[in-house]
Every structure is written in C-alpha cells, then in structure tokens.
Amino acid sequence: MSAIETDLNPSKTVGLKLPLASDKFNNFALTKNSLEQAEFNLKNLLQTYIGEGPMQPTFGSKLLELCFEQQNDDLPENIEKEVRRAVSEWLGYINIRNVETLTEEGDLNQIYVKIEYSTTLNPDSINQITIDATSTSTGGY
Asked: For the chain, which terminal residue's Cβ has fewer other Cβ atoms within 10 angstroms, N or C?
C-alpha cells in the first residue's frame, strides 16, 4: 500500500504523536496521515539535543545551543542553517521552504522558529509550524 493510499484510508494510522500520550482509543495517540506525522517528526528532530537519543548519537539539532550563544545579527541565518542541516540529514522527505526567527515583543530571550515546509508526498501543499527554540517541549527523542 502506498503512502497516499494509507493517507486516504481512515482506518489506517501512520505513527505516534509526540510527546507520547494516550488518547481515548489507544495507549498511545496516533497520527492519521503522513502530513500530520511529518509535523511531529519535524518538531521532535528540532527539539531533541544531539546525543540525547539512544542508539542515534547524531539525531537532533543544535537549536537550543544556538539560542544560548551570544546573540548577534547572524542568529537568524545560523538557525536557518541548522534547521536545514538537521532536516536534510534525518528527514529527507521534508522540503524546507522558509525559516524565520521570531522573538516575543518585550522578551528577546524567547526565540521562536517559524518553518514553512512541504513533503515529497505532497510538494504543492505548504505547511507551517512554529516552535519555541529555547525549550524542549516535545520531551525529546
């Protein structure tokens, strides 16, 4: 069965939602299609420290590390490079369209990264996530 066929079949699931939690039907909440799974995979990758995951010492990103370095005008460019590097290495089916670094008004210590992306399964559908680059809210790997 192809990924498109799986996505169109309402009785099929693709993967696990992160952070791991139960829902009313399963011990672990499940994703229903590849786009939903891509979002969770992208968040998990970017909010996991490199070296945190067992058996995958290079899985993750340096986003948090970058956010706690001396901030300068290069920060947005460095964040974009790191997002693209991590996604290229681990999530080759995700195409990064745009990366934007945002701060909360009045709190320059809070850094968000807005990412526009598509997947190879559906390259014409642009999706967007915004993650807090200064926390590991997914619970990591």
From this structure: N
